[in-house]
Amino acid sequence: MKKLVMVAASAAVCLAAATPVLATAVAEKNAPADKKVISGVTMWERHTFSGSSTAVSAFQKWFAGEEFVQPEIETMDLTALALPCGEIAYAGDIVYKDNNGEFHVYK
User: Fold this and answer.
1) For the whole prediction, is pTM greater than 0.85?
2) What torsion, rounded to 10 degrees, do the Cα atoms 89, 90, 92, 97 define?
3) E-assigned strand segments in the chain
4) How deeply is 62 buried, as exposed, middle or buried, from its count of CB atoms within 10 A (0-12, 13-18, 19+)?
5) What's the average pLDDT block by block, 10 residues per block, for the chain (107 residues)?
6) Are the C-beta atoms of residues 17 and 36 closer than 8 Å to each other?
7) Taking Cα atoms as reference points, which of 32, 64, 75, 25 lies closest to residue 47?
8) d(CA 24, CA 36)
9) Domain locations in the chain?
């Protein structure tokens, strides 16, 4: 019984360590016709920031007008993302483009 508990505990630790990597692989994107309104905020397109420096590069290209492309492989470093409006996004934050074409952190 003790071995089973140890194996389960080890598996839980491994799963918890892998969860951020799995979570970064999921990005949400909606076309304008399929926009979302959450708490009065219209989000034309939104993506979850993982906190990696490779994600920073992808978001900066999106801010510059390119199509957002989720990195296939991400670094395991944690860094902040400065948005053009001056807001700062951290790992796990949702960054969205509003109906005016401006980028913001969903709070």
Assistant:
1) no
2) 10
3) 36-38, 41-43, 45-48, 81-82, 88-89, 94-97, 103-105
4) middle
5) 38 36 34 54 89 97 97 94 98 94 93
6) no
7) 25
8) 21
9) 2-105
- CA distances 31 to 24, 68, 99, Å, are 20, 12, 12
Cα–Cα distances (Å) from 66 to 7, 40, 49, in that order, read: 46, 27, 17
Tell me, what's the pLDDT at 22? 29
Dihedral of alpha carbons 15, 20, 24, 30, sign: positive
Question: Would you state the structure tokens that stand for residue 66, as one six-digit string?
Answer: 């390119």
Q: In the prediction, which pLDDT does 36 show?
A: 66
- The type of residue at 73 is I
* DSSP summary character for residue 75: -
Cα distance between residue 68 and residue 94, in whole Å: 14
